[in-house]
Amino acid sequence: MNVVADARMVTLDEIRAARERIKGVARVTPLIDVSAIAGRPLWLKCENMQPGGAFKIRGAYNMVSQLPPEERARGVVTYSSGNHGQAVAISARALGAPAVVVMPTTAPAVKVDGAKRFGAEVVFAGTTTIHRRAKAEEIAAERGLAMVPPFDHAQIIAGQGTLGLEILEQCPEVGTVFVPIGGGGIVAGVSAAVKLSRSGVAVVGVEPAGAASMKTSIDAGEIRTLDRAQSMADGLMAVRPGDLNFAHVRKFLDRIDTVDEDEIAAALRWLFREARLVAEPSGAVAVAAALRAVPSSAPAVAIVSGGNLDAAVFAQYLS
Protein backbone atom coordinates (compact mmCIF):
# COMPACT_ATOMS: atom_id res chain seq x y z
CA MET A 1 0.00 0.00 0.00
CA ASN A 2 1.22 3.50 -0.81
CA VAL A 3 0.98 5.18 2.58
CA VAL A 4 1.06 8.70 1.14
CA ALA A 5 -1.44 8.09 -1.65
CA ASP A 6 -3.88 6.43 0.74
CA ALA A 7 -3.40 8.95 3.58
CA ARG A 8 -6.55 10.23 5.22
CA MET A 9 -6.58 13.98 5.60
CA VAL A 10 -7.34 15.43 9.02
CA THR A 11 -10.77 17.04 9.00
CA LEU A 12 -11.83 20.46 10.24
CA ASP A 13 -14.12 18.76 12.77
CA GLU A 14 -11.14 16.86 14.18
CA ILE A 15 -9.17 20.09 14.55
CA ARG A 16 -12.12 21.79 16.25
CA ALA A 17 -12.51 18.81 18.61
CA ALA A 18 -8.81 19.02 19.43
CA ARG A 19 -9.23 22.68 20.37
CA GLU A 20 -11.88 21.77 22.93
CA ARG A 21 -9.75 18.91 24.23
CA ILE A 22 -6.64 21.01 24.88
CA LYS A 23 -8.44 23.93 26.54
CA GLY A 24 -6.95 24.72 29.91
CA VAL A 25 -3.66 23.04 29.03
CA ALA A 26 -2.48 24.80 25.87
CA ARG A 27 -2.73 28.58 25.89
CA VAL A 28 -4.40 30.77 23.30
CA THR A 29 -1.17 32.61 22.63
CA PRO A 30 -0.93 36.32 21.76
CA LEU A 31 -0.90 37.56 18.18
CA ILE A 32 1.23 40.71 18.15
CA ASP A 33 1.10 43.45 15.53
CA VAL A 34 4.70 44.37 14.61
CA SER A 35 3.85 46.14 11.35
CA ALA A 36 5.30 49.48 12.43
CA ILE A 37 8.73 48.05 13.26
CA ALA A 38 8.74 45.57 10.35
CA GLY A 39 7.84 48.19 7.76
CA ARG A 40 5.13 45.90 6.36
CA PRO A 41 1.80 44.43 7.57
CA LEU A 42 3.09 41.66 9.88
CA TRP A 43 1.80 39.90 12.96
CA LEU A 44 3.63 37.37 15.14
CA LYS A 45 1.90 34.34 16.68
CA CYS A 46 3.82 33.79 19.92
CA GLU A 47 3.92 30.04 20.51
CA ASN A 48 7.14 30.56 22.49
CA MET A 49 4.74 31.46 25.32
CA GLN A 50 3.18 27.99 25.51
CA PRO A 51 3.79 25.61 28.45
CA GLY A 52 7.10 24.00 27.62
CA GLY A 53 8.05 27.00 25.49
CA ALA A 54 6.75 25.76 22.12
CA PHE A 55 3.66 24.88 20.09
CA LYS A 56 4.18 21.14 20.65
CA ILE A 57 1.85 20.96 23.67
CA ARG A 58 -1.12 21.21 21.30
CA GLY A 59 -0.50 17.95 19.47
CA ALA A 60 1.04 16.08 22.40
CA TYR A 61 -1.85 16.68 24.79
CA ASN A 62 -4.42 16.02 22.09
CA MET A 63 -2.95 12.55 21.53
CA VAL A 64 -2.03 11.53 25.07
CA SER A 65 -5.47 12.54 26.36
CA GLN A 66 -7.12 10.19 23.87
CA LEU A 67 -5.14 7.10 24.86
CA PRO A 68 -7.20 4.44 26.68
CA PRO A 69 -6.71 4.64 30.48
CA GLU A 70 -4.93 1.29 30.61
CA GLU A 71 -2.39 2.46 28.03
CA ARG A 72 -1.77 5.73 29.85
CA ALA A 73 -1.23 3.80 33.09
CA ARG A 74 1.58 1.79 31.45
CA GLY A 75 3.17 4.96 30.14
CA VAL A 76 4.16 6.72 26.93
CA VAL A 77 7.36 7.07 24.94
CA THR A 78 8.38 9.54 22.28
CA TYR A 79 11.41 10.62 20.26
CA SER A 80 12.23 14.30 20.01
CA SER A 81 14.93 16.88 19.45
CA GLY A 82 13.55 18.55 22.56
CA ASN A 83 10.33 20.55 22.37
CA HIS A 84 7.99 17.64 21.63
CA GLY A 85 9.65 15.68 24.40
CA GLN A 86 8.91 18.44 26.89
CA ALA A 87 5.33 18.64 25.65
CA VAL A 88 4.81 14.89 26.05
CA ALA A 89 6.31 15.07 29.54
CA ILE A 90 3.93 17.89 30.52
CA SER A 91 0.93 16.06 29.02
CA ALA A 92 1.83 12.75 30.64
CA ARG A 93 2.29 14.36 34.04
CA ALA A 94 -1.06 16.13 33.76
CA LEU A 95 -2.76 12.84 32.88
CA GLY A 96 -0.92 10.65 35.41
CA ALA A 97 1.19 8.71 32.90
CA PRO A 98 4.91 7.85 33.11
CA ALA A 99 6.91 9.22 30.15
CA VAL A 100 10.14 8.30 28.39
CA VAL A 101 11.71 10.74 25.93
CA VAL A 102 14.42 9.66 23.48
CA MET A 103 16.58 12.65 22.52
CA PRO A 104 19.62 13.11 20.27
CA THR A 105 23.04 13.21 21.86
CA THR A 106 23.25 16.77 20.52
CA ALA A 107 20.05 18.01 22.21
CA PRO A 108 20.40 21.45 23.85
CA ALA A 109 20.77 21.19 27.61
CA VAL A 110 17.80 23.52 28.18
CA LYS A 111 15.50 21.06 26.38
CA VAL A 112 16.93 18.01 28.14
CA ASP A 113 16.59 19.68 31.52
CA GLY A 114 13.05 20.73 30.66
CA ALA A 115 11.92 17.19 29.88
CA LYS A 116 13.48 15.93 33.11
CA ARG A 117 11.96 18.77 35.11
CA PHE A 118 8.51 17.81 33.85
CA GLY A 119 9.06 14.25 35.08
CA ALA A 120 10.22 12.34 32.01
CA GLU A 121 12.96 9.74 31.84
CA VAL A 122 15.41 10.87 29.15
CA VAL A 123 17.32 8.41 26.94
CA PHE A 124 19.86 9.51 24.32
CA ALA A 125 20.22 7.92 20.87
CA GLY A 126 22.19 9.14 17.84
CA THR A 127 21.76 12.46 16.09
CA THR A 128 18.89 12.00 13.62
CA THR A 129 15.15 11.37 13.77
CA ILE A 130 15.79 7.88 12.38
CA HIS A 131 18.10 7.02 15.29
CA ARG A 132 15.69 8.38 17.88
CA ARG A 133 12.68 6.65 16.40
CA ALA A 134 14.41 3.25 16.32
CA LYS A 135 15.37 3.53 19.99
CA ALA A 136 11.90 4.70 21.00
CA GLU A 137 10.28 1.79 19.16
CA GLU A 138 12.64 -0.60 20.92
CA ILE A 139 11.69 0.84 24.33
CA ALA A 140 7.98 0.78 23.46
CA ALA A 141 8.20 -2.92 22.60
CA GLU A 142 10.25 -3.82 25.68
CA ARG A 143 8.11 -1.94 28.20
CA GLY A 144 4.68 -2.00 26.56
CA LEU A 145 4.54 1.80 26.26
CA ALA A 146 2.31 3.79 23.92
CA MET A 147 4.17 5.68 21.21
CA VAL A 148 3.46 9.41 20.86
CA PRO A 149 5.26 10.36 17.63
CA PRO A 150 6.45 13.95 17.15
CA PHE A 151 4.67 14.69 13.87
CA ASP A 152 3.49 11.73 11.77
CA HIS A 153 0.08 11.03 13.35
CA ALA A 154 -3.42 12.36 12.70
CA GLN A 155 -4.01 13.32 16.33
CA ILE A 156 -0.73 15.24 16.46
CA ILE A 157 -1.59 17.04 13.23
CA ALA A 158 -5.10 17.89 14.46
CA GLY A 159 -3.68 19.31 17.68
CA GLN A 160 -1.21 21.51 15.84
CA GLY A 161 -4.03 22.59 13.54
CA THR A 162 -5.68 24.42 16.44
CA LEU A 163 -3.01 27.05 15.91
CA GLY A 164 -4.41 27.76 12.45
CA LEU A 165 -7.91 28.27 13.83
CA GLU A 166 -6.60 30.80 16.35
CA ILE A 167 -4.73 32.77 13.70
CA LEU A 168 -7.87 33.10 11.55
CA GLU A 169 -9.90 34.26 14.56
CA GLN A 170 -7.27 36.70 15.88
CA CYS A 171 -6.43 38.20 12.47
CA PRO A 172 -9.48 37.82 10.20
CA GLU A 173 -7.86 39.92 7.47
CA VAL A 174 -4.75 37.71 7.23
CA GLY A 175 -3.47 37.11 3.69
CA THR A 176 -0.50 34.79 4.26
CA VAL A 177 0.61 32.52 7.09
CA PHE A 178 4.30 31.57 7.38
CA VAL A 179 4.85 28.23 9.16
CA PRO A 180 8.13 26.47 10.03
CA ILE A 181 8.73 22.91 8.79
CA GLY A 182 10.65 20.16 10.55
CA GLY A 183 9.03 16.76 10.25
CA GLY A 184 5.85 18.50 9.15
CA GLY A 185 3.39 18.34 12.06
CA ILE A 186 2.77 22.06 12.49
CA VAL A 187 2.68 22.85 8.77
CA ALA A 188 0.31 19.94 8.08
CA GLY A 189 -2.09 20.98 10.84
CA VAL A 190 -2.00 24.73 10.21
CA SER A 191 -2.33 24.41 6.43
CA ALA A 192 -5.28 22.03 6.81
CA ALA A 193 -7.03 24.29 9.34
CA VAL A 194 -6.51 27.41 7.24
CA LYS A 195 -7.36 25.96 3.83
CA LEU A 196 -10.42 24.06 5.08
CA SER A 197 -11.67 27.26 6.72
CA ARG A 198 -10.64 29.97 4.24
CA SER A 199 -9.10 28.63 1.06
CA GLY A 200 -8.04 32.09 -0.15
CA VAL A 201 -5.46 32.54 2.61
CA ALA A 202 -1.98 31.53 1.45
CA VAL A 203 0.08 29.18 3.63
CA VAL A 204 3.86 29.17 3.15
CA GLY A 205 6.08 26.55 4.75
CA VAL A 206 9.62 27.53 5.70
CA GLU A 207 12.65 25.25 6.10
CA PRO A 208 16.32 25.84 6.87
CA ALA A 209 18.27 25.55 3.62
CA GLY A 210 20.50 22.94 5.25
CA ALA A 211 17.59 20.72 6.31
CA ALA A 212 15.04 21.05 3.51
CA SER A 213 13.67 17.50 3.54
CA MET A 214 10.07 18.55 2.82
CA LYS A 215 10.97 20.81 -0.10
CA THR A 216 13.26 18.14 -1.52
CA SER A 217 10.42 15.61 -1.27
CA ILE A 218 7.76 17.91 -2.73
CA ASP A 219 10.04 18.84 -5.63
CA ALA A 220 10.69 15.14 -6.29
CA GLY A 221 7.01 14.20 -6.06
CA GLU A 222 7.78 11.56 -3.44
CA ILE A 223 9.28 11.35 0.04
CA ARG A 224 13.06 11.60 0.05
CA THR A 225 15.52 11.13 2.90
CA LEU A 226 18.40 13.57 3.15
CA ASP A 227 21.91 12.23 3.63
CA ARG A 228 22.39 14.82 6.34
CA ALA A 229 20.73 17.85 7.89
CA GLN A 230 22.67 20.79 9.27
CA SER A 231 21.31 24.00 10.79
CA MET A 232 21.31 26.10 13.94
CA ALA A 233 17.54 25.40 13.94
CA ASP A 234 17.90 22.13 15.87
CA GLY A 235 14.13 21.58 16.06
CA LEU A 236 13.77 21.54 12.26
CA MET A 237 16.41 18.99 11.28
CA ALA A 238 14.28 16.02 10.25
CA VAL A 239 16.07 14.16 7.47
CA ARG A 240 12.75 12.78 6.25
CA PRO A 241 9.21 14.23 6.42
CA GLY A 242 6.42 12.14 7.87
CA ASP A 243 4.15 10.28 5.46
CA LEU A 244 0.92 11.95 6.63
CA ASN A 245 2.66 15.30 6.85
CA PHE A 246 3.91 15.05 3.27
CA ALA A 247 0.40 14.19 2.08
CA HIS A 248 -1.10 17.20 3.87
CA VAL A 249 1.59 19.55 2.58
CA ARG A 250 1.10 18.32 -0.98
CA LYS A 251 -2.65 18.94 -0.71
CA PHE A 252 -2.83 22.20 1.26
CA LEU A 253 0.43 24.17 1.11
CA ASP A 254 0.94 26.99 -1.40
CA ARG A 255 4.74 26.86 -1.44
CA ILE A 256 7.89 26.14 0.56
CA ASP A 257 10.59 28.77 1.12
CA THR A 258 14.06 28.09 2.50
CA VAL A 259 16.16 30.45 4.61
CA ASP A 260 19.90 30.31 5.21
CA GLU A 261 21.74 30.45 8.51
CA ASP A 262 22.49 34.18 8.29
CA GLU A 263 18.79 34.93 7.72
CA ILE A 264 17.78 32.78 10.70
CA ALA A 265 20.29 34.49 12.99
CA ALA A 266 19.23 37.93 11.75
CA ALA A 267 15.56 37.12 12.42
CA LEU A 268 16.39 35.87 15.91
CA ARG A 269 18.24 39.14 16.64
CA TRP A 270 15.42 41.21 15.13
CA LEU A 271 12.83 39.45 17.28
CA PHE A 272 14.83 40.20 20.42
CA ARG A 273 15.94 43.75 19.67
CA GLU A 274 12.89 45.07 17.85
CA ALA A 275 9.94 42.93 18.96
CA ARG A 276 11.31 42.11 22.45
CA LEU A 277 10.70 38.39 21.96
CA VAL A 278 13.01 35.49 22.78
CA ALA A 279 12.94 32.84 20.07
CA GLU A 280 15.12 29.82 19.48
CA PRO A 281 16.50 29.52 15.93
CA SER A 282 13.71 27.11 14.94
CA GLY A 283 11.21 29.67 16.20
CA ALA A 284 12.71 32.43 14.07
CA VAL A 285 12.68 30.59 10.73
CA ALA A 286 9.15 31.61 9.68
CA VAL A 287 9.87 35.19 10.69
CA ALA A 288 13.00 35.21 8.53
CA ALA A 289 10.94 34.28 5.48
CA ALA A 290 8.19 36.76 6.31
CA LEU A 291 10.66 39.65 6.63
CA ARG A 292 12.18 38.76 3.25
CA ALA A 293 8.92 38.21 1.35
CA VAL A 294 7.40 40.82 -0.94
CA PRO A 295 4.86 42.63 1.28
CA SER A 296 1.20 42.84 0.35
CA SER A 297 -1.69 44.94 1.61
CA ALA A 298 -3.14 41.99 3.55
CA PRO A 299 -1.27 41.21 6.78
CA ALA A 300 1.09 38.27 7.01
CA VAL A 301 1.28 36.16 10.16
CA ALA A 302 4.57 34.44 11.07
CA ILE A 303 4.56 31.73 13.72
CA VAL A 304 7.23 32.08 16.41
CA SER A 305 7.13 28.38 17.15
CA GLY A 306 9.40 28.12 20.19
CA GLY A 307 11.72 29.91 22.59
CA ASN A 308 13.83 27.22 24.23
CA LEU A 309 17.56 27.86 24.06
CA ASP A 310 20.47 28.14 26.44
CA ALA A 311 21.22 31.68 27.63
CA ALA A 312 24.90 31.41 26.67
CA VAL A 313 24.04 30.25 23.15
CA PHE A 314 21.45 33.01 22.81
CA ALA A 315 24.07 35.57 23.78
CA GLN A 316 26.36 34.25 21.06
CA TYR A 317 23.62 34.63 18.45
CA LEU A 318 23.00 38.21 19.58
CA SER A 319 26.65 39.24 19.43
CATH architecture of the largest domain: 3-Layer(aba) Sandwich
CATH topology of the largest domain: Rossmann fold
Number of domains: 2
**What's the CATH first level of the largest domain?**
Alpha Beta
Helix content: 40-55%
Order of helices and strands: HEHEHHEHEHEHEHEHEHHEHHEH
> Which class best fits the helix and strand makeup?
alpha/beta
Strands across the major sheet, in which order?
1-2-10-7-8-9
* Radius of gyration, taken over Cα atoms and rounded to an integer in Å: 18 Å
**Largest beta sheet, briefly?**
6 strands, mixed
Could you tell me the strand content as a percent range?
5-15%
Count of beta strands: 10
Number of helices: 14
Overall average pLDDT = 94
Task: Please report the distance between the alpha carbons of the first and last residues.
Answer: 51 Å
* Low-pLDDT regions: none
Query: Shape from CA axes?
Result: globular
